[in-house]
Design goal:
The chain has helices at about 5-20, 20-30, 35-55, 60-75, 75-85, 90-95, 100-110, 115-135, 145-165, 175-195, 205-230, 235-240, 245-255, 265-280, 310-315. The chain is mostly helical. The termini are far apart.
């Protein structure tokens, strides 16, 4: 396996893992506590990585980590949850699937990645495939929900682009940078969770097992792989791995929960997966040095579903 193929495969594990969130949330976690769930995903994982790496930000990286944490986690999660509760079924996932298009535009503006017909076409094709997988007949639209879904996709897309633009400080590994962002994002969610949802619920052993998986497997490890991939891939290539999340969620729903998987959904999976593969066939992959890159440098990167289109489905389905 070539280095590029190995990099893509490892990075793809992140959206694949995020596709399991719907199953874990519905089967292991207390109902109707989306912000608390977001908090339990981000903050324990971030603190664990801080303890493991024993590295704190220095200088400008205090505010950069706060910005990245807010974009990738702190703002993304609440907006995504709001969209999930205002929109039916997979509509929030479809709204969020415009993330790759946001990334293409932001990457052109801040990274110097020129949009190509291929990048635009694959992004639109991926969004169409996702819509076939998750969108149900008769789905209604809510203005607030749609705006929240679009803003969540924009937040994650901006997080992806600025993660790529700023790189990371010299001598600091991707694991430490992941810990900074998760901690900052979790701290941003903390007051919202307590203000809007009140005190934490009583937790059972099953709940604790679910939160442990989300915090460490689904978040700490997955985000490390995701940010590591962003550092080495182009923005469009990384973000087009996002459709693997709704594909995974649909397969798990069919295999573990007995949810119907019809011809249209299978066709949508094939279309989305084909767009994902096409997005990895770029003749050029940018290489970003480990040290922080100058703000004027030109780069080529993803998100939430992030997104991360990938995360859009995982939370949008919680309301079902």
């Amino acid at each position: 396996m070539s280095r590029k193929a190995a990099l893509v495969a490892l990075t793809a594990l992140a959206p694949i893992s995020w596709g399991s969130t719907y199953y874990v949330t519905t089967e292991f976690l207390p109902a109707d506590r989306p912000l608390f769930t977001g908090l339990m995903r981000a903050l324990p994982a971030g603190l664990a990585l801080l303890a493991l790496t024993r590295r704190l930000p220095r200088g400008a990286w205090w505010w950069k980590s706060a910005v990245l944490g807010a974009l990738n986690i702190g703002a993304f999660f609440p907006l995504l949850f709001l969209a999930a509760y205002r929109l039916p079924g997979g509509v929030a996932a479809v709204v969020g699937s415009v993330g790759p298009l946001f990334v293409v535009g932001l990457a052109a503006l801040f990274l110097g990645e020129k949009p190509t017909v291929k990048s635009l076409l694959t992004a639109v094709t991926a969004a169409f495939g996702v819509s076939l997988v998750v969108l149900k007949a008769g789905a209604a639209f809510d203005t607030v929900g749609v705006v929240a879904g679009l803003l969540s996709a924009l937040s994650m897309s901006a997080g992806i682009v600025f993660t790529k633009r700023w790189g990371r400080p010299e001598g600091v590994g991707a694991l430490a940078l992941t810990g900074w962002q998760l901690t900052a994002g979790g701290l941003a969610i903390l007051p919202l969770a307590f203000l809007l949802e009140g005190a934490p619920p009583a937790l059972t052993g099953t709940n604790l097992a679910g939160y442990a998986y989300l915090a460490f497997g689904n978040t700490a490890i997955s985000y490390f792989l995701w940010f590591r991939g962003i550092e080495r891939m182009s923005a469009s290539s990384a973000t087009l791995l996002g459709p693997l999340s709704p594909i995974t969620a649909a397969v798990i729903g069919w295999a573990a929960l007995g949810q119907a998987l019809g011809t249209v959904q299978v066709l949508g999976m094939l279309i989305a997966f084909g767009a994902t593969l096409a997005g990895q066939l770029s003749p050029r992959t940018a290489r970003t040095p480990a040290a922080e890159a100058p703000s004027t440098a030109s780069f080529s990167t993803a998100e939430k579903n992030g997104q991360e289109v990938s995360m859009d489905l995982e939370v949008s389905e919680v309301r079902r």
